[in-house]
Specification:
By secondary structure, the protein is α+β, with helices and mostly antiparallel strands. It has helices at residues 6-25, 43-59, 89-93, 160-172, 186-195, 208-220, 248-262; strands spanning 32-34, 40-42, 64-67, 71-73, 79-87, 100-107, 110-118, 123-128, 132-135, 138-139, 151-155, 179-181, 200-204, 224-227, 239-243. Strands 4-3-5-6-7-8-9-10 form an 8-stranded mixed sheet, with helices on both faces. The mean pLDDT is 95.
């Protein structure tokens, strides 16, 4: 992308520097602990977040930062950075190369910059509102594949009923589309929709730092994002469908069927 904003350049720099931390620890005997919600955290998570925050605040000291490990830093700013230092920590800690650094800048309720970086594959996804989405400086677009060839990924929520819905969708979507997957890395789920690697992703209640950057990538790559019911989606709603738009309505209909079966509103 030509004429990157300073904000995007800093986000890319922060993601790549954080990626060096993850490379250092990946496939080592890194110790992991578990939070109250039973999700893992490692030394790499905390070091990565510290580096990201340091780089951002050195350039934008008045901005606020919402990080997975340290919560909100600063308050009252129109600009809030949503950062996940290791999205897919369980994959990372177990030597599975499906993880990423995710950084997004939100102004008000609009995501204006998004970066997703997987250091294991050197895949740098980035986008800026109105300027398109890119992978390693090559512009990307969503696929045109239909249900005969499409792949849908699902991402779990934090409530037990949401996780139950995830598994119902995982199995029953195969009646609608060629294949369903659970990658356990939301940032890459959405980045892959943007580059045409998969055709859709269903989000069922994760945190903004998990999906903010990815939603911008999907939009800038020509994708479609709606609520689970097919209505207008607005950030920071954390229940949505992101797709290439080809069979979006069929996915929404299947979600409706499975929610009704589980007695969900």
């Amino acid at each position: 992308m030509q004429n990157k904003s300073k904000e995007l350049e800093i986000a890319i720099k922060a993601a790549q520097e954080a990626g060096k931390v993850l490379e250092k620890y990946f496939e080592t005997e890194i110790l992991k602990e578990f939070k109250e919600d039973n999700t893992p955290v490692t030394l790499a998570d905390t070091e990565s977040e510290e580096i990201i925050k340091k780089i951002i605040l050195s350039e934008f000291p008045s901005h606020s930062i919402l990080g997975e490990e340290t919560g909100m830093t600063g308050s009252g700013s129109e600009y809030v950075w949503h950062i996940d230092p290791v999205d897919g920590t369980r994959n990372f800690a177990n030597g599975i190369p499906l993880f990423a650094v995710s950084i997004a800048l939100v102004r008000g309720n609009e995501v204006i910059v998004g970066v997703v970086y997987n250091p294991a594959t050197k895949s740098l996804f980035y986008g800026e509102a109105g300027k398109g989405a890119y992978l390693n400086d090559t512009k990307i677009l969503v696929s045109k594949d239909d249900t005969d060839h499409g792949i849908v990924t699902v991402a779990p929520g934090k409530l037990s009923i949401e996780r139950q819905l995830l598994w119902e969708l995982y199995y029953n979507l195969r009646k609608v589309v060629r294949s369903s997957r659970y990658l356990a890395c939301t940032a890459l789920d959405l980045a892959y929709v943007a580059r045409g690697g998969v055709e859709a992703n269903i989000q069922l209640g994760l945190s903004t730092y998990d999906f903010a950057a990815g939603t911008l990538l999907v939009k800038e790559a020509g994708g479609t994002i709606t609520t689970l019911e097919g209505g207008v989606w607005k950030f920071p709603d954390n229940h949505f469908v992101a797709s290439n738009g080809v069979f979006h309505d069929l996915i929404v209909e299947e979600i409706k069927k499975q929610k009704e079966k589980l007695g969900m509103k």
